[in-house]
Design a protein that fits this description.
heterodimer, A: 420 residues, alpha/beta, 9-stranded mixed beta sheet, two-stranded antiparallel sheet, 18 helices, B: 321 residues, mainly alpha, two-stranded antiparallel ribbon, 13 helices, Bact_solute-bd_prot1 (chain A), Sugar ABC transporter substrate-binding protein (chain A), SBP (chain A), signal (chain A), TAT_signal (chain A)
Amino acid sequence: MSAFRNSNFDRRTALRAALGLAAAGGLAACGSNTGRSSSGGGAGLTQYFHAYGEAGTEQAIKRYAKAYKESNVTTQWITGSNFESKLFASLLTDKAPDCFEFHPQLQMIESGQVADLTDLIDPVKDDFNPADIQSHTVDGKIYGIRMIDDPQFFFYRPSLFEKAGVEVPQTLEELAEAAAKLTTDKVKGAYLGNTLHSMINPLIWSAGAQHLDEKNQIAYHTDAVVDGFKQLRKLFTSGDLLLDAPTDFWDPSALNQGLTAMQWCGMWAMPQMQEALGDDLGIFPFPKVGDAGKQSVYNGGWSMFVNAKGKNLEATKEYVKWLWIDQKEYQEDWALSYGFHIPPRTSIAASAEKLKSGLPAEGVKLFNEFGHFDNIGWTQASITALEDVLANSVRKGADPDKELTKADAKVNKELKKLFG
Amino acid sequence: MSTITKDGVSSPAAAKASPAKPRRGLRGSPTFNFWLFTGPFLIGLAIFVYLPILWSLYLSFFEARFTVTPSEFIGLDNYVTMLTDEEFIRSLVTFTIFAVFIVPLTWGTSLGLALMVNRLRFMRAFFRSVFFLPTAVSYVAASLVWKMSIFSGVRFGMMNTFLSLFGIDNTAWLASPDPPWYWLVILTVRLWLQAGFYMILFIAALQNIPQELYEAASIDGAKRGWQTFWHITLPQLRATSTAVILLLLVAAYQAFDEFFNLLNKTTWGRPPLVELYYKALGDSQDYGAGSAGALILTVLICLVTLLQGKFLGFGRGEESK
């Protein structure tokens, strides 16, 4: 008689099997996604990356991790638009990553979340873009290693400009006029992103202002910035702007699919645009705002940070040094083989053939001439405060001066917490 | 043993009464069995519901930015911050507007669908399934379909393509609050997602209405249609309607997914949960203020539920009606 006929056996066996499966599942989960075989030695490290849009980037990061022989490095490739939230939340838990990419922000240093990496960078400090080093430095200590620099500017179709008789705009007014002339029943004049948030930083710089001054006090609330928001509002309501596109500004689809004549985007998308549009592609910086302004380019990018509260601090620092200081081949591959990014190491940037001619070279030139870097004292709360100003004054029609005054209160509260 | 009776009809043999065995050990104990079945649930409830609520209460009295183990006690400051926060108050207004529209709209649509499906003579199961199916779709997936396909602002968006047939220009459905087209997107996606579920509740209730009532009404001269619906169907659905309204109201308070995915980082159209997400779990990571807001919201939900119960009579016994 089959043992399965026995009801006691059934129940107990089923229970044991369920427990066994649960345990096996747990064990299986422990061993997944390391990017390497289980034979690797050393500490198990975890790194967080946001999902890059360029094909092959995830595989590249996992390939670099697999090549590291001292530790098993697991990569969490975080898709979706809320990488920041997931990172911040996980940093409060035991499952926090050992290292992660992010932007330099003082609050992370103040709250003891990121480790001092001065000893790693000091020997090669002179080989880094000085502005990158400065944007990661607090009280003489360097808290992150820049992996890539990502300048952002306007990409445009010269053929459409020529057809409409439009010159490359030098001022924000000229940009609005150009957008009006370029708009047809099929193509909108300009695309600045769905939220328009990427306009905030260049608008401030192009109006001749800064986020914070040397004393870390508000420096963005000027008449020129207020006027810039008003001009953006006019452009927003003109009907010449592409709104509600399926993908946001960081994706080149709007320009590539002929939905717009010019688009704000980053240099990372240049290869995709060149593939879709060939030579019918040009770039120009954010035009100046007001007479005292100057054209600007936002030098975004990503840096590698080490979790100061991680269980494997020294092993993580060794891995980070290995990949982002020692392995120049990988750094070059990361910056140039997928999208175009400017390598922060000057020796790599100088030898990067792909950036030496044509449009990429023009991008590097704009980066050097008009570029502005993140201010480490400009934190998430301050970023959100100005995003609200833009949403309310440009998209909703409120008075920008009043909205900036409201933001001042929030930013000052933040500055008080950071600098006392 | 013979089971032939006097009538010649076979009847089952009476089961042999087995003497009741005394149950041994813990398995015989009702207390043990109670804890065996409810214990895991209660432990889960304690760990995942009550402990976080208590921890939130604790956090709400502390300065807790970028930490959930704060040390700086600030009393009621977080509550004052939230109650004077223009955006949090605005989110409560947004929720109210949303609830005012979505609750009656879903109630009416689901009742209408139920009446329609219930009257069908053929393919009733098919139509019941068709209307119920959207309930199985995730809010996130539906929101993305609505945003990127149906209500996309570009010329090849489904709705813009349709409107262009009448010579109407492209509309940016979600980009601007003026005019507030985003409400149309939000209301339609939610209606599509949840009307089918409430339709099923109404169908069940409709099938429980005794046919004799309609027959008696017919004999008394009541006209079929509106008159019967108003005087018989609707009063008979009172208990179900009240439960549906309560569920819809709670669901409206819990609105998150479609607002979060459709209105990415706008300052308008944020219901309370989205506002609290941005405050506590988003970029600000202010767990103190977020916790204070969550507790304020909890108190509000309790108050609204009690008031709703008082006005609509949910939970009141039959005898008290």
